Amino acid sequence: MSNIIIDHVSKTFTDSETEVHALHDICLKIDSGDIYGVIGMSGAGKSTLVRCLNYLEVPTEGHVYIGDKELGALSESELRNERSKISMIFQHFNLLMQKNVIDNICFPLIIKGVSKKEARKKARELLKTVDLTDKEKAYPAQLSGGQKQRVAIARALASEPEILLCDEATSALDPQTTSSILGLLRRINQELGITIVIITHQMAVVREICNKVAILEHGHLVEHGEVDEVFLNPRTRAAKTLLKYEEAESDG
Ligand SMILES: Nc1ncnc2c1ncn2[C@@H]1O[C@H](COP(=O)(O)OP(=O)(O)OP(=O)(O)O)[C@@H](O)[C@H]1O
Ligand SMILES: [Mg+2]
Fold first, then answer.
1. Ligand 2 centre from 125 Cα, in Å?
2. Percent of the chain at pLDDT above 70?
3. What is the Cβ-side half-sphere exposure of residue 106, based on CA atoms within 13 angstroms?
4. pLDDT band with cut points at 50, 70 and 90 for residue 2
5. Cβ of 50 less than 6 Å from ligand 1
6. Are 92 and 140 a contacting pair, CB within 8 Å?
7. Fewer Cβ neighbours under 10 Å: the N or C end of the chain?
8. Ligand 1 test: best mutation among 6, 11, 12, 13, most atoms within 8 Å of CB?
9. Which atom of ligand 1 is found nearest the CA of 216?
10. pLDDT for the residue 163
11. Is the pTM of the predicted complex or chain greater than 0.85?
12. Which atom of ligand 1 is nearest to 41's Cα?
């Protein structure tokens, strides 16, 4: 199983007129088996950071290691192979609307050249894992948000990843549905041993399932460590603001 090491990673987006420094010199280690939360306000660089983990964004400076492989040093085909160990889920699920549930889950397998019969067998097992067996033939438009996210999770698991990246995966869901999806992610972490990185702007999500947390502010890593430590003893303004925000949310 693979640790993730983010080693002095910076990312600057440049066009003809402007430069956006999205990440500044980030160093972070995510251990195999962690459920690692990355939090920060909008624009802090959270999505950019996780996209650097699978090289959907190539860092301007620094290195990303998955296990002993440095992503920047790999050939195209080696990178593809490393990427296949990493799956991603999103706020808006990104399902194929013209395909039903089982075909959505089969899709990455069919692309990989798995036979239709094998793909369906695997997809049915995954539907069991995400507790959605009765929705096999439904289309995404016929599902609730929570059900759509379960399909997206099943699809993400189809390639048997070691790492699951979740970019605001519960941000479009109500608190109860959020809890059930977080419960599913915890089960996936424990039973399948998959390392999970969760990007969120909700402290409550971190509190509920993460063992470690990193706080980003304006592209800087301002705090990181065990969730209990960071939450009990926030040192920076960014952490204090996020915690206060959470208190205000749960009061109201
Ligand atoms: N492709 C891009 N080109 C130019 N600038 C970009 C690009 N992607 C992100 N940025 C900029 O980088 C900064 C960080 O963006 P990012 O999407 O990582 O933030 P975020 O923390 O995920 O925010 P949110 O919570 O709103 O999703 C922002 O200023 C954003 O405008
Ligand atoms: Mg984002």
1. 31
2. 96
3. 18
4. confident
5. no
6. no
7. C
8. 13
9. 21
10. 97
11. yes
12. 25
Ligand 2 centre and the CA of 156: distance in Å?
19
The pLDDT tens digits of the residues spanning 105-137 come to 999 999 989 999 999 999 999 999 999 999 999
CB 91 within 8 A of CB 42: no
Ligand 1 center to 25 CA (angstroms) = 16
Domains of the chain: 1-85+191-252 (3.40.50.300)
Q: Which residues pair with 225 in a beta bridge?
A: 213
Q: How confident is the model over 172-203, as pLDDT tens digits?
A: 999 999 999 999 999 999 999 999 999 998 88
- Neighbour count for residue 190 (Cβ, 10 Å): 11
Q: Alpha carbon 34 to chain centroid distance? A: 12
The response to whether residue 22 sits with its C-beta less than 6 Å from ligand 1 reads yes
Task: Give mean pLDDT, residues 150-176.
Answer: 94
In Å, what is the CA distance from 112 to each residue of 100, 106, 159, 181? 19, 10, 9, 27
**What's residue 1's pLDDT?**
66
